[in-house]
Design goal:
about 700 residues; binds 3-hydroxybutanoyl-coenzyme A; 28 helices; binds 1,4-dihydronicotinamide adenine dinucleotide; N-(1-d-carboxylethyl)-l-norvaline Dehydrogenase, domain 2; about 45% helix; alpha/beta; 2-enoyl-CoA Hydratase, Chain A, domain 1; eight-stranded mixed beta sheet; 20 strands
């Protein structure tokens, strides 16, 4: 055995050389890995070996470039030098893949002459998620192996494919049971039988297949337009594949290099790479050690089968966890379960789950109208109406029914978790788990720790969140927690601006153009304008009152701030609404004027930044990046702008502070009162993220 560098070693298995990478946690291509691979290839080329196997220790094959090295000093050999050594090795080189071969890792594997993998292995080029494109020949080699359509799909989505699919599309040559044995056997066979040492760069047959479809690229662009709006990287990835077709391999590489550098030095990738680490940082809770014991949640209870409860139950059933869902009466239960089934059926008809999964998942969900059926549950999540007295009554009941040690969670979107916990004899077991709607789709989960919530309960909520494919962020108790508390601030200003002369359509458009999926008024229409509104209490003293009084309920009846096409649901701004708002505002003596788009943006976003800073100084969020994770995942803040805290830093805190002070003086209102933390950071040159 030869230690080549701190993370790569060379071992012989009779006549086959193994170059072994060991760079935990994910065998990223740090400079010492690149150096070790280069040295390993050179040594194996010259020693007595007949073939070389590249294999990794630990949980995965190389999962990509070392992102933490990006933007830093360049150390060690560049990746293409390593790849050249592999491709030009005079002996067969076999990549042996387990775990995830991602990004630069897959690009390395594409320079081996052959690839073997275990059945559980996954393959992907996720660079697009970091605002990048594969910068080590991946954009040129992948389409040569898989064909253009598959490569386009993998590169622009960043999604992974499994070993069977990889085998089918030519990305791997063999799926084996025992990785090392299988890879060595194939390497030896290739050497002894004199298999060709074909380089993928020389294979053009799959590129030529595209000649029969002149519209391939334009159709593909159309198909991803909606999903990738605002992002630069998907388009750049497409351009690289176009370059693969229109020129030589070397010309394609040159285009890849140029476009990669553009992205790498641009603001979007900076934000997206920041976001990657932000999401991972959110898992780290300073005062709750990672090895804190957790409750093993094998059976989850959900109370309430309404909008949220049904979706929450689905999350658990999706990963094989049994759920008992309890409603107040049979009719509500039946209705709730029918919605769940319909959602599964829709997923099956779209092909996102297998047809047999509908019944399999439904079978994991048991309906009941008796809370005593929660007795055996390890965790119960309450999702009844947003009413403190009701929630307290229910938590007292759960306290009497549930076994000691069970986690008692509330899905409240704003209420005081400490007060809810006070209704039980075990506040240490009570926690908030704030799912976002639709709960089976949205990835965000605010985990709300009460003053007395135990470490075990916090760690259990964070762990189960990952298991059900959510992105959890731990927050503290305050009205609306992190996400909704900041959203309320945006809403105040959006409502005020339409009274001053902006239109709902203008406000929404400015936020849409910024990158949000929709603005506040479209969002209200979607949620329903009549939520929480009661005809008997309505006194025409807010825009919401007059909207409801004129029968506008939002999308549900085709009329809200917009009118909706009954077939397509397309929204059209409604001049009647604008007239109604004008009349209302003038009647209240509010002067009408033109509000610029710039003002709309600033008045929507700066109060959020200010509130975020207050949330930080109160310790409600652990770190600024946690706030960004909530907003990107929970409210569609465009990832390429990092999140509100990151964005404010990019704008410049001095400018943000000056604007907040200025608006505060002109407009008044507690939400414009400058956060002392924000002011200090601006003065000291600090940063919110
Ligand atoms: N570089 C540096 N650190 C990385 C990393 C990378 N490429 N990938 C993961 N890590 C770190 C994480 O920050 C985390 O660190 P922490 O424990 O200190 O928080 C740790 O590894 C474990 O990561 P996860 O918590 O994400 O572990 P999972 O098991 O859930 O997921 C994974 C593993 C699927 C590999 C996931 O980490 C992942 O998707 N990583 C990024 C893969 C990627 O984007 N690769 C492409 C990089 S760009 C590139 O290759 C450019 C090339 O074209 C030149
Ligand atoms: P919903 O009205 O759709 O569903 C509530 C369900 O609880 C109803 O089916 C009702 O029959 C049932 N219920 C009421 N009292 C009950 C009782 N005593 N026993 C058993 N079942 C009972 O409400 P929704 O929207 O699902 O909200 C539930 C909770 O989730 C609220 O606290 C809300 O604030 C929160 N939330 C809602 C979001 C949303 O967008 N709808 C988003 C995030 C959180």
């Amino acid at each position: 055995m030869t230690e080549l560098t701190e993370s790569v070693r060379l071992e012989m298995r009779d006549d086959v050389a193994l170059v072994i990478v060991n760079n935990p946690p994910v065998n990223a291509l740090s400079h010492h890995v690149r150096q070790g691979l280069l040295d390993g290839m050179h040594q194996a080329a010259q020693n007595e070996a007949v073939a070389v196997v590249l294999i990794c220790d630990g949980r995965t094959f190389i999962a990509g470039a070392d992102i933490s090295e990006f933007g830093g000093e360049r150390l060690g050999p560049d990746l293409p030098e390593v790849q050249d050594a592999m491709e030009n090795c005079p002996k067969p080189v076999v990549a042996a893949i387990h775990g995830t071969a991602l990004g630069g890792g897959l690009e390395v594997a594409l320079c081996a002459h052959y690839r073997v993998a275990v059945e559980s292995a996954k393959f992907g080029l996720p660079e697009v998620k970091l605002g990048l494109l594969p910068g080590a020949g991946g954009t040129q080699r992948l389409p040569r192996v898989t064909g253009v359509p598959k490569a386009l799909q993998m590169m622009t989505s960043g999604d992974q494919i499994g070993a069977s699919e990889a085998l089918m599309c030519g990305l791997v040559d063999q799926v084996v049971e025992d990785l090392e044995t299988g890879a060595i056997a194939l390497a030896r066979k290739a050497a002894h039988e004199g298999w060709p040492l074909t380089k993928i760069r020389d294979r053009n047959e799959k590129l030529q297949e595209t000649e029969s479809d002149p519209d391939l690229f334009s159709n593909f662009r159309k198909s991803i337009a909606r999903k990738t709006r605002g992002f630069l990287a998907p388009e750049y990835n497409v351009q690289c594949v176009e370059a693969a077709i229109s020129g030589t391999f070397e010309e394609g590489l040159a285009a890849e290099r140029r476009l990669f550098t553009d992205l790498m030095t641009g603001s979007q990738s900076g934000a997206q790479r920041y976001y990657f680490f932000a999401e991972r940082a959110a898992n780290k809770i300073p005062d709750v050690p990672r090895d804190t014991p957790v409750v093993d949640v094998q059976h989850c209870g959900v109370l309430g089968a309404g909008t949220m409860g049904g979706g929450i139950a689905m999350n658990f059933a999706n990963v094989g966890i049994a759920v008992t869902i309890v409603e107040r009466d049979q009719e509500s239960l039946d209705r709730g379960l029918a919605v769940v089934r319909k959602n599964y059926e829709r997923s099956a008809s779209r092909g996102s789950i297998a047809p047999e999964d509908v019944d399999r998942r439904m079978a994991l969900i048991t309906g009941s109208i008796d809370k005593n059926d929660f007795a055996g549950c390890d965790m119960v999540i309450e999702a009844v109406f947003e009413d403190m007295e009701l929630k307290k009554t229910i938590f007292a009941e759960l306290d009497a029914i549930c076994r000691q040690g069970a986690v008692l969670a509330s899905n409240t979107s704003a209420l005081d978790v400490n007060e809810i916990a006070s209704a039980t004899s075990r506040p240490q077991s009570v926690i908030g788990m704030h799912f976002f709607s639709p709960a089976n789709v949205m990835k965000m989960l605010e985990v709300v720790r009460g003053d007395k919530t135990s470490d075990t309960v916090i760690q259990t909520a964070m762990t189960i969140a990952k298991k059900i494919a959510k992105v959890p962020v731990l927050v503290g108790v305050c009205h609306g927690f992190v996400g909704n508390r900041m959203l309320f601030m945006r809403r105040i200003e959006a409502d005020k601006m339409v009274l001053e002369g902006a239109t709902p359509d203008q406000v929404d458009r400015v936020l849409f153009d910024f990158g949000f999926p929709m603005g506040p008024f479209a969002m209200s229409d979607l949620a329903g304008l009549d939520i929480g509104w009661k005809a008997e209490n309505s006194k025409s003293d807010s825009v919401r009152d007059i909207m409801n009084e004129s029968g506008r309920k939002g999308q549900k009846n085709g009329r809200g701030y917009y009118t909706y096409d009954p077939d397509t649901r397309a929204a059209t701004p409604d001049p009647d609404v604008v007239a109604m708002i004008r009349e209302f505002a003038v009647g209240r003596g509010i002067e009408q004027r033109e509000v610029t788009d710039q003002e709309v943006l600033e008045r929507c976003l700066y109060p959020m930044v200010n509130e975020g800073a207050k949330i930080l100084e109160e310790g409600i969020a652990i770190r600024g990046s946690d706030i960004d994770v909530v907003w990107v995942n929970g409210y569609g803040w465009p990832m390429y702008r990092g999140g509100p805290m990151y964005w404010a830093d990019e704008v410049g805190l001095t400018e943000v502070v000056a604007s907040i002070k200025d608006y505060g003086e002109r407009l008044g209102g507690a939400h414009w009162k400058l956060s002392p933390l924000l002011e200090r950071l601006a003065t000291e040159g600090g940063s919110l993220h």
